[in-house]
Amino acid sequence: MASASFDATAVVWLQDDNDFEPVSPLEGHENEVKSVSFNSEGNLIATCSRDKTIWIWERDEDEDFSCSAVLSGHSQDVKYVKWHPTENLLYSASYDDSIRCWKHEPSIDDWVCSAVLNGHKSTVWQIDFSPCGQYLVSCSQDKSLIVWHQNKSIITKLDAHERAVLSVSWCGDRIATAGADN
């Protein structure tokens, strides 16, 4: 398990019997950490921050995590990070109204932005994947949800709430949302 904090850190916790123990503090962001996400294999963690960066942390044989990359590309706070469910692709949502896809480029041994998804007119608060990973859903301050074909185009845009849509979750063939309209 991992947690994000207003003190500009994230912490990895391991379960020991019935308790969780902090094992690896993730320090380096300049401002509060907004989101933390494990990849499907559990060997990479992504954190994002108000400092406009995304950090990729890699697990070593001692179960400690060290920073392997700092990604810059968003022009505003990065609000949320989410790994693709089956591929080592990282998606980030930002106050700059965009979603970015990041992938590791072996030829340069670095992470690069492979796609920018634009379609929202305000802050993108959260994203989630369909169980198969082929589709992505995003929610925004602009009151809408967008369902995307993974890295390509908008499939549908829905005005879902009367105020900002703050949270979205894909479960099976359903999408659940929470908005600022109660």
> Radius of gyration over alpha carbons?
16 Å
Total helical elements: 0
Largest sheet: 4 strands, antiparallel
Helix content: under 10%
* Overall spatial form: globular
Mean pLDDT: 92
The share of residues in extended strands comes to over 45%
Helix/strand order: EEEEEEEEEEEEEEEEE
Based on secondary structure, the structural category is: mainly beta
Distance between the termini: 29 Å
Top keywords for this entry?
single chain; 182 residues; mainly beta; 4-stranded antiparallel beta sheet; 0% helix
Structure explained in plain terms:
By secondary structure, the protein is mostly beta strands. Helices cover 0% and strands 62% of the residues. It has strands spanning 2-4, 9-16, 19-27, 33-38, 44-49, 53-59, 65-72, 78-83, 89-94, 98-105, 110-118, 124-129, 135-140, 144-149, 154-159, 165-171, 174-179. The strands form five sheets. The chain has a four-stranded antiparallel sheet with strand order 4-5-6-7, with no helix packed on it. A hairpin with a 4-residue loop joins strand 10 (98-105) and strand 11. The model has no long low-confidence stretch (mean pLDDT 92).
Question: What is the topology?
Answer:
Elements: E1 2-4, E2 9-16, E3 19-27, E4 33-38, E5 44-49, E6 53-59, E7 65-72, E8 78-83, E9 89-94, E10 98-105, E11 110-118, E12 124-129, E13 135-140, E14 144-149, E15 154-159, E16 165-171, E17 174-179
Antiparallel strand pairs: 1-2, 2-3, 4-5, 5-6, 6-7, 8-9, 9-10, 10-11, 12-13, 13-14, 14-15, 16-17
